[in-house]
Amino acid sequence: MSIVIRDVREHELDSVLALNNNAGLAILPLDSARLQRFYRQAEYFRVAERDGNLAGFLVGFGADSDHDSSNFRWFRERYPNFFYIDRIVVASRRRGGGVGRAFYADVQSYAELRYPQLACEVFLDHGADPALLFHGSFGFKEVGQSQMPDAGVRASMLMKELCSYSWVKQTYGDTLPDQPWTRSRLQVETAGERSTGTLA
């Protein structure tokens, strides 16, 4: 069955929280207050549906956001303009079924319209080889390592150049064509509803 990537809905946050906190040591735990903050502030917060069920989620922030992650700060101290993947979680029963790849195709499609680089990290202390291989196959390269002071976890800091960004910037400047798939979830339509993202 097909995978649908779309913006999260507020009533789904409890399910997102459960997915996050059942994901194991590769993902930092969340509480409901922090998840609500993500919902209010994250530039990209999408879920995957497969067979009508929630199969995962991905949260991301632009370099100018007021995000308080130590890994986000690590990138911001070194790079002026990037899009940061804070976390991706895929339900255990859906791992290996293409959900992660669908998310990364979607988030890259979103980010390359706005940012020259895509950033994320992989925790190194709990069997990182599958995650490093996954990111390497998408063109990410390690640009450093960081010891997270708030979690005591060592992370490989990864960055990917987004080759379409320069063309988009030269062609459209700061004004993208108004299409559903080009809108940020934080853009409010005149009707007062959040726009829905689609896999471009």
UniProtKB/TrEMBL annotation:
SUPFAM superfamilies linked to this entry: Acyl-CoA N-acyltransferases (Nat) (SSF55729)
Domain N-acetyltransferase: 3-164
Identification of the protein by name: GNAT family N-acetyltransferase
Organism (species): Pseudoxanthomonas gei
